[in-house]
Amino acid sequence: MAFIVEILNESRHLLLDAAVYILFGLVVSGLFRVFLNPNSIARNLGRGRFSSVFKAALIGIPIPL
């Protein structure tokens, strides 16, 4: 039983450590939603295989930094 409690406790600590980054990601995505046109995002990230993945990775790199 102590093993399960320890797992739940460590999971809670991990969630608390990641909460700042999760909230930052939600704020940034909300700002994208308000200020950017969804058609322009779909045009730049919705077509092609390599280029759209590369652009999405470039956009996502600064978030954890």
Keywords, please?
elongated; 65 residues; mainly alpha; 3 helices
What does this structure look like?
Helices cover about 80% and strands about 0% of the residues. The protein has three helices and no strands. The chain has helices spanning about 1-35, 40-45, 50-60. It has one domain (about 1-60). It starts with a helix and ends in a 5-residue tail after the last helix. The mean pLDDT is about 85.
What percent of the residues sit in helical stretches (DSSP H or I)? over 70%
Work out the helix count: 3
Strand content: under 5%
Largest sheet properties: none
What low-confidence regions span 5 or more consecutive residues with pLDDT below 50?
none
Instruction: Give the end-to-end Cα distance, rounded to a whole number of Å.
Output: 38 Å
Helix/strand order, N-terminal first: HHH
Gyration radius from CA atoms, angstroms: 17 Å
Structural class, from helix and strand content? mainly alpha
Count the beta strands: 0
